[in-house]
Amino acid sequence: MTGIYVKKEYKKWMFLFAYGIYLISAVLYDTDYKVMDLTKNLFPIVRFLAYGLVCAKIILDFLEKEYSLKELGLIIAVGILLLISAVVSKNKNPLIFWVFIVSAHDVDFQEIIKWSLWVHIAALIFVIGSCYAGILENQIFVQAGGARVREGLGFDYTTGSAHYFFYMILCWVYWRKEKITWKELAVMTAVSAYLFVKTDTKNAFGMGMLAIIGAIILKYVPYLRDYKKIYSFIAVGIAPLVSIGMVLLSIRYDESVEWMKWCNKLINGRLALGRMGYVNYGAHPFGQYISWNEGAYHYVDSSYMQIILSLGLVIFALILIGLLTVGIFITIRKDTYFLLVYALFIIHGSFDPQLIWIGHNSFLMFYSYIKNGKRNTPEKMIAKSCVID
Asked: Which of 37, 147, 243, 312 could form a disulfide with 286 if both were Cys (CB 3.0 to 4.6 A apart)?
């Protein structure tokens, strides 16, 4: 038994180390470190090391029959669809993300969230520290004729630090749950306010504040912490409602319709950009190659519209099924805290593109959440204790 435990522990750290160095490379790649002579050649080395480790773990798990036949069938089927999309769209990232998700299947979900949180904290401090030390340039973005001045704080674009910190708040709230303290909440609020003042990233700040308010409510109102029937409707319904709703609103956007115009203004022109993207590129089964940085500004911020346009309708359906599955398991587990963060990153995905980026969103390791939860149901824990006795 000891040998098996050590082996599983070793494989767990294979994944955590691989994911950790991937996260660091993802954060630093959003800065000028990717073009500096001393560091630019390290990025492909670090990435391939991370890919090699997660692939090695999958092979070990396969050889030790850690995956059932049904699991293997699902893993291969999803992998094939993602591979087709990667070839058509020239975007291999979702396929790489799937490899990480599969590799994490037997690693404790809570441990993944805690690990990614501390890695992100260290990486964010390093980038902002490098900026203040003069190693990285603090790029200044002047918009609206000088009325809006935004700082990059070492990142290539002004929203970088704020979006990373939003996901860090979600990780902290989920990890600490009702044990979260006023001091922790105050620090998160202060850092969010600082990043908002510096970067003027409204969406990330607003969603982060909602996470903090939600954490306070769940901590101090135990009645709301107990799972309600309405929570089940939210868990199962929010992903299809928000994702399909955002796609339809974008495709059907008409500036002459007053309420649509108001919605578009509320989310900083996301509907108009989504509509422009749909008119320019259309939707295809497995996506298409799109260069978002060429010509006039036409970047589609919405995660759901990006998936439709770039990765295709099939991959959009796959992701929606994955999100729905997570929602169902949240209901089965009566996991109020995961429902809070799940609802927030689903909504955030409507107007920002980080939803399926594992460099930001560690909650994408949902395979771990689903599989490990099944192993640790009360019935199985009781059965284990009886065997031990």
From this structure: 312
- Each residue's pLDDT tens digit, 252-301: 999 999 999 999 999 889 999 999 999 999 999 999 999 886 655 678 99
**Angle (nearest 5°) at CA 133 between 129 and 136:** 80
Tell me which DSSP letter residue 143 carries.
E
3-state SS string over 325-350? HHHHHHHHHCCHHHHHHHHHHHHHHH
Report the alpha-carbon distance of residue 207 to residue 44 in Å, rounded.
33
Q: Are strands 148-151 and 140-143 parallel, antiparallel or unpaired?
A: antiparallel
Q: Which long-range contacts (CB under 8 A, 24 or more apart) does 30-36 make?
A: 30/155, 30/156, 30/157, 30/160, 31/127, 31/130, 31/136, 31/154, 31/155, 31/156, 31/160, 32/136, 32/137, 32/154, 32/156, 33/130, 33/136
Q: Can you give the pLDDT at residue 5?
A: 44
Beta carbons within 10 angstroms of residue 79's beta carbon: 14
Structure token digits, residue 49: 């090391």
- In whole angstroms, give the CA distance from residue 313 to residue 295: 26
The C-alpha atoms of residue 96 and residue 182 are separated, in whole angstroms, by 38
Which value, in Å, is the radius of gyration of the alpha carbons in the chain? 21
pLDDT given at position 372? 79
What angle, rounded to 10 degrees, do the helices at 313-333 and 69-89 form?
140
Q: What angle do CA 36, 125, 29 make, to 5 degrees?
A: 35
In order of 272, 273, 297, 305, 317, the CA distances from 279 in angstroms are 11, 10, 15, 12, 21
Cβ neighbours for 201, distance < 8 A, ≥ 6 positions apart: 150, 158, 159, 162, 163, 195
pLDDT per residue over 45-57, tens digit each?
999 999 999 999 9
Classified as helix, coil or strand, 219 is: helix
Q: What three-state secondary structure class fits 65?
A: coil
Of 339, 327, 163, nearest in space to 239 by CA = 327
Closest CA to 165 of 138, 143, 137, 194: 194
